[in-house]
From TrEMBL:
It comes from the Bacteria. Belongs to the prokaryotic molybdopterin-containing oxidoreductase family. NasA/NapA/NarB subfamily. This is Assimilatory nitrate reductase (NADH) alpha subunit apoprotein. Its cofactor is [4Fe-4S] cluster; Mo-bis(molybdopterin guanine dinucleotide). Keywords: 4Fe-4S, Iron, Iron-sulfur, Metal-binding, Molybdenum, Nitrate assimilation, Oxidoreductase. One of its GO terms (biological process) is nitrate assimilation. One of its GO terms (cellular component) is membrane. The chain holds residues 1 to 788 of 975 of the full protein. Residues 3-59 form the 4Fe-4S Mo/W bis-MGD-type domain. GO terms for molecular function: 4 iron, 4 sulfur cluster binding; metal ion binding; molybdopterin cofactor binding; oxidoreductase activity.
Length: 788
């Protein structure tokens, strides 16, 4: 008998690949790439193809729990030196002594039999959450509570969480772990374009003659896009690829040029490029004059002496000139950027320095051209669409715009509306630490591992009077501090939508039963909202109803002043939602016949059939070379219309400055990031033996010269220390790592390794515009580990 097949979307990175999941009669699950999905056309990377290996119930949180006494924080547990959990790497280190005194066994398998300690009914748990939040708000005001949510949530989950906090509680204290991933791109887009708009589409990566990958290890972090580019380059060897990254990553394997820029040298490099372009025939004077403001000021700020560019970037004059020449001489240029750009104290300036160069040459919004922010998480983009950031409202409306606030409040028929931006992630946990936040709900994320200054975050959460965590896993570094644990449905167990880096909305579909008593996040949030007295506004029966409301709000009194609009889906029925095919936004003007039109279901119509109601709308639709005339791509800004009130883009003057953090005590630069086969804190990918065999343990990449100077041998244990914490990992000596620096992956946690949380080393330094933490330029010391 044929296995039942379900089309869904991968839950890992922002590429947003289509997946076909098959469930056999015996319950066995297999996955393969969806050949019809426009993000991947059947491809999957190692993580996507191992999805079926990560859906067992080991370690799952299956029932609501109320825990009276959260565990001590890592600092208290650790005391002096390393006395906490140990790492499995100690047993693998030849000749090394045991690192720590105790070993935490793996979490017991939880299969839903029996009643665990603290297990309560849903009613008991939800009543307590609603009562505690209501009492805290009544006593201390709406800003005394906060939601910390996740780019793993589906858009429908995000929508109701944002609606509850901003429209019914009346605070904007909802922020997301996507703040750690793409907030600088959002801020840069808004400064330059007047909207948070990614202008281009994935096809641009295949149509470009020059691709610049800056701060992006695409081969490991967005592997299917890497595959698409590698395959395009194979067909068109003349295509040039430049990688700008301090490390010689695997992405460099397809690069024609690797610029090993110094940490945070990107602004200087792109400022120098702008100054170079200003003297070249590539400058598009007409575009600058007719469609932009601020060029002269940006150019004045960009003019940096050659010596300063060399010193700030650490690059040779020859390499810099070669890069500038290839950019100048190539019309079809796409500049992709990701966490190496965003996760910086100058992240927003970096984004604008890149966009400035595309505006100066008019290379934006046309096939094969434009700046392209790659989102890290599967639904970072969907969270932006529904206002899941502390400084945004739903549907890309602005919290500081009174017209937008009134519009959203009226649409929701809400008793209040947040009047000012809320606390961004780092500030939110500072407010938890100093007692301003007294009730915190963490949804689908693990901030005790992923936040900078992670030990302080753990202390803050532990000391918070009331902490709720909804998660799929029972024992994470964060769930141990919860007073209430709410079991959430995971991938394959729930329905909803996600939006990928090219603004394409795709369905995630349920093909597995909810395990235990797990519920979808949107339902949990609505259950709490109803108990807080907001029943009418949260009476959703299914995610299709939420999506329809979200779509209607996006179109509500839309005068063409915003980029995000999916109003054409406002009347979508649950039946049409069930069969919804991937489509790109905006989608403002499809007819509502209670049925998804074929052209809409295909993600576009034949031959650009879409017409837009606002003539100055900054859009263009072009047929896709991949889509065989069916799918087509929507790009923004080719016609030179932007979303600032005067319809012009803004050049932003940004300064080329050094961000020197190292000092005598902490002389090395720590860079953090992902590896190919793990996702975030490994709660899912850590279950796959295949994925874990790629790189089985935490490590520190160290340059051979540094290792020799420090007396560190390959595969021995090293201790990395900053003023905020320390980690213990194994040395991986490689010339891919530049001298004076060390790279440690973000994935391992105290669940897997003693003091393995690398973000415990990172100070809570943020970009002043975006609030995004600087996770890639941290001063540390590196030394061989000596057992005490
Ligand atoms: Fe999933 Fe990203 Fe891999 Fe695609 S590239 S299969 S979305 S992890």
């Amino acid at each position: 008998m044929m296995a039942a097949e379900t089309k869904t979307t991968c839950p890992y990175c922002g590429v947003g690949c289509g997946v076909i999941a098959s469930v056999a009669d015996d319950g066995g699950v297999s996955v393969r790439g969806d050949p019809d999905h426009p993000a991947n056309f059947g491809r999957l990377c190692s993580k996507g193809s191992a999805l079926a290996e990560t859906i067992d119930l080991d370690g799952r949180l299956l029932f609501p729990e109320i825990r009276p006494s959260p565990l001590p924080s890592p600092r208290k547990e650790r005391g002096e030196g390393y006395s906490g959990v140990t790492t499995h790497i100690s047993s693998l280190a030849p000749g090394s002594k045991e690192v720590a005194a105790t070993f935490r066994p793996p979490s017991p398998r939880v299969r839903g039999e029996g009643k665990g300690e603290g297990q309560v009914s849903w009613d008991e748990a939800l009543d307590l959450v609603a009562r505690k939040f209501s009492e805290t708000i009544a006593e201390h005001g709406p800003d005394s509570v906060a939601f910390y949510v996740s780019g793993q949530l589906l858009t429908e989950d995000y929508y109701v969480a944002n609606k509850l906090m901003k429209g019914f509680i009346g605070s904007a204290n909802i922020d997301t772990n996507s703040r750690l991933c793409m907030a600088s791109s959002v801020a840069g887009h808004r400064r330059a374009f007047g909207s948070d708009t990614v202008p281009g589409v994935y096809e641009d990566l295949e149509e470009a003659d020059l691709i610049i990958l800056t701060g992006s290890n695409l081969a490991w972090c967005h592997p299917v896009l890497y595959q698409r580019i590698a395959s395009a380059k194979e067909k068109r060897p003349a295509m040039k690829i430049v990688v700008i990254d301090p490390r010689r990553t695997m992405t460099c394997d397809i690069a024609d040029m690797h610029l090993a820029v110094r940490p945070d040298g990107d602004v200087a490099l792109f400022n120098g490029l702008l100054a170079h372009l200003a003297k070249s025939p590539a400058l598009d004077d007409d575009f600058i004059r007719e469609h932009t403001n601020g060029f002269a000021e940006a150019l004045a700020a960009a003019r940096t002496s050659e010596a300063d560019i060399i010193s700030l970037t650490g690059l040779s004059q020859g390499d810099i000139e070669a890069f500038y020449r290839v950019f100048e001489g190539t019309q079809r240029v796409v500049t992709c950027y990701s966490q190496g750009v965003n996760q910086s104290s100058s992240g927003t300036d970096k984004v604008n320095a890149i966009i400035n160069c595309h505006l100066a040459t008019g290379r934006i919004g046309r096939p094969g051209m434009g700046p392209f922010s790659l989102t890290g998480q599967p639904n970072a983009m969907g969270g932006r669409e529904v206002g899941g950031l502390a400084n945004m409202l739903a549907a890309h409306m602005e919290i500081e715009n009174p017209t937008h606030r009134e519009r959203v409040q009226r649409f929701w028929n809400a008793p209040v509306i947040a009047a000012k931006p809320g606390l961004k992630a780092v500030d939110m946990f500072k407010a938890v630490a100093d007692g301003r936040i007294k009730a915190l709900w963490i949804m689908g994320t693990n901030p005790v591992v992923s936040m900078p200054d992670a030990d302080s975050v753990a202390d803050a959460i532990r000391n918070c009077p009331f902490v709720v965590v909804s998660d799929i896993m029972r024992e994470t570094d964060t769930t141990q501090y919860a007073h209430v644990l709410l079991p959430a449905a995971g991938w394959g167990e729930k329905d909803g939508t996600v939006t990928n880096s090219e603004r394409r909305i795709s369905r995630q579909r349920q093909f597995l039963a909810h395990p235990g008593e797990a519920r979808a996040d949107w339902r949990i949030i609505c259950d709490v909202a109803r108990r807080m007295g907001f029943g009418a506004a949260f009476a959703f029966e299914n995610p299709a109803e939420i999506f329809a409301e979200h779509a209607a709000l996006s179109a509500f009194e839309n005068g063409g002043d915003r980029d995000f609009d999916i109003g054409g889906y406002a009347g979508i029925s649950p039946t049409d939602y069930d069969v919804l095919k991937p489509f790109q936004w905006p989608a403002p003007s499809f007819p509502l016949a209670g049925k998804v039109p074929a052209e809409r279901a295909d993600g576009g119509g034949d031959d650009c059939a879409l017409s837009f109601t606002t003539p100055t709308r900054p859009l263009a639709r072009t047929p896709s070379p991949q889509g065989g005339g069916k799918a087509s791509a929507i790009r923004f800004f080719a016609n030179g219309n932007f979303y600032h009130p005067d319809r012009k883009a803004r050049f932003i003057a940004v300064e080329s400055m050094a961000t020197e953090r190292v000092n005598l005590a902490y002389p090395s630069v720590l860079n953090t990031g992902r590896i190919r086969d793990q996702w975030h804190t490994m709660t899912r990918t850590g279950k796959s033996a295949r994925l874990s065999s790629h790189l089985a343990e935490p490590f520190a990449e160290i340059n051979p010269d540094d290792a020799a100077a420090l007396g560190i041998a390959d595969a021995t244990l090293v201790q990395i220390t900053s003023p905020h914490g320390k980690v213990l990992v194994r040395a991986l000596i490689t010339s891919r790592q530049p001298r004076g620096s060390v790279f440690v992956p973000i994935h391992w946690t105290d669940q897997y390794a003693s003091n393995g949380r690398v973000d415990a080393l990172v100070p809570p330094v943020t970009d002043p515009v975006s609030g995004q933490p600087a996770l890639k330029n941290v001063a540390v010391s590196v030394e061989p580990y000596k057992a005490e």
